[in-house]
């Protein structure tokens, strides 16, 4: 049985430099216990698109009477506890895609996670099957038997709570007032520090914060959009011109009139055009390009600020 779990855990499907794998966070669970199913793709070359249709509500599996895929008998539903989540990132020279389900089971069985279909670029491929053993937990004779979904909550007496408030409200009000004062002072101090920062430093901090958030892992379009907004705000404050409602071409023309070098304008065009393509043309550049375009944005801020800023 242990050998069978190991075989399912490490089985992979190789095709054209791509590795497809199905992994369970643990091979055995008790009824009602959660387990994570991870489907992964490892590719030596970037892929243009990955199309996988996620399930919701239940993950349809099969019941294996004897613990192997040759004796699949009936349908078995795993309840999905959290929505499907997927991410793409680069590790060394490999591009990795991972999709995860968190599920649980309500009947003891040997559960076969079936082969899942995925379309990579124009090729139809399948994640390998996996095996999960669902066991009935041992009963504790010292505790009463309850339904697995049954919950009990002790409700306190309303009179006790009201009496507590009436007795202790002076010091509770004092603590609440102190917290409010501390929060207000902290917010004011933070705004004062941000106001005193030179425009270049403030803008670079915003770019660093955006990059550290790793929001590109969840929403690449939103990351590129936020980066373009940071640059537009920088240009607006630096030149005293409205930039937020201008097109990329209009911004180029205005910067050229300000005497900005052609090489710097070319980098700005690249950043804003890439943002437009991601937002409107649904372009999906590789994750490695995110770091390149972010560093380009820093270089633009430093080059533009060094020309005319007099407050640094």
Short description:
This protein has 312 residues and is of the alpha+beta class. The chain has helices at residues 2-10, 158-196, 199-213, 220-239, 248-257, 262-280, 287-308, and strands at residues 12-15, 18-24, 28-30, 34-43, 50-51, 58-64, 72-91, 94-104, 109-113, 116-120, 123-127, 130-135. α4 runs parallel beside α7 (287-308) and α6 (262-280) crosses α7.
**CATH topology (fold) name of the largest domain:** Immunoglobulin-like
Q: How do the strands line up in the largest sheet?
A: 1-2-4-8-7-6-9-12-3
Order of helices and strands: HEEEEEEEEEEEEHHHHHH
CATH class of the largest domain: Mainly Beta
Q: Tell me the structural class.
A: alpha+beta
Instruction: Give the terminus-to-terminus CA distance.
Output: 69 Å
Overall pLDDT: 82
Structure overview:
The protein is of the alpha+beta class and 312 residues long. It folds into two domains: 2-135, Immunoglobulin-like (Sandwich); 197-308, Four Helix Bundle (Hemerythrin (Met), subunit A), CATH 1.20.120. It has helices at residues 2-10, 158-196, 199-213, 220-239, 248-257, 262-280, 287-308, and strands at 12-15, 18-24, 28-30, 34-43, 50-51, 58-64, 72-91, 94-104, 109-113, 116-120, 123-127, 130-135. It is flat. Residues 6-15 have low confidence and may be disordered.
């Amino acid at each position: 049985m242990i050998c069978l779990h190991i075989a399912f855990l490490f089985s992979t499907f190789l095709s054209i430099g791509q590795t497809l794998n199905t992994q369970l966070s643990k091979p055995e669970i008790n009824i009602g216990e959660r387990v994570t199913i991870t489907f992964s793709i490892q590719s030596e070359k970037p892929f243009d698109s990955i199309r996988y249709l996620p399930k919701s509500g239940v993950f349809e599996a099969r019941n294996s009477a004897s613990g192997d895929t040759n004796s699949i008998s009936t349908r078995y539903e795993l309840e999905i506890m959290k929505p499907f989540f997927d991410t793409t990132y680069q590790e060394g020279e490999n591009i990795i895609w991972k999709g995860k389900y968190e599920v649980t089971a309500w009947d003891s069985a040997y559960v076969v996670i079936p082969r899942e279909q995925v379309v990579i670029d124009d090729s139809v491929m399948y994640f390998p099957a996996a095996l999960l053993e669902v066991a009935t937990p041992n009963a504790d004779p010292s505790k009463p038997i309850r339904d697995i979904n049954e919950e009990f909550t002790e409700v306190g007496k309303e009179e006790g709570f009201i009496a507590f408030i009436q007795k202790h409200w002076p010091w509770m009000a004092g603590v609440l007032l102190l917290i409010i004062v501390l929060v207000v002072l902290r917010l004011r101090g933070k705004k004062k520090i941000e106001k005193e920062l030179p425009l270049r430093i403030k803008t670079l901090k915003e770019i660093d914060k955006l990059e550290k958030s790793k929001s590109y892992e969840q929403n690449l379009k939103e990351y590129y959009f936020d980066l373009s907004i940071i640059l537009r705000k920088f240009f607006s404050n630096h030149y005293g011109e409205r930039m937020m409602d201008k097109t990329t071409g209009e911004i180029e023309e205005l910067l050229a009139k300000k005497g900005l070098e052609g090489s710097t304008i070319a980098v700005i065009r690249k950043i804003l055009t890439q943002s437009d393509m991601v937002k409107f043309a649904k372009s999906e550049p590789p994750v490695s390009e995110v770091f390149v375009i972010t560093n380009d944005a820093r270089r633009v801020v430093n080059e533009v600020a060094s020309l005319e800023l007099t407050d640094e």
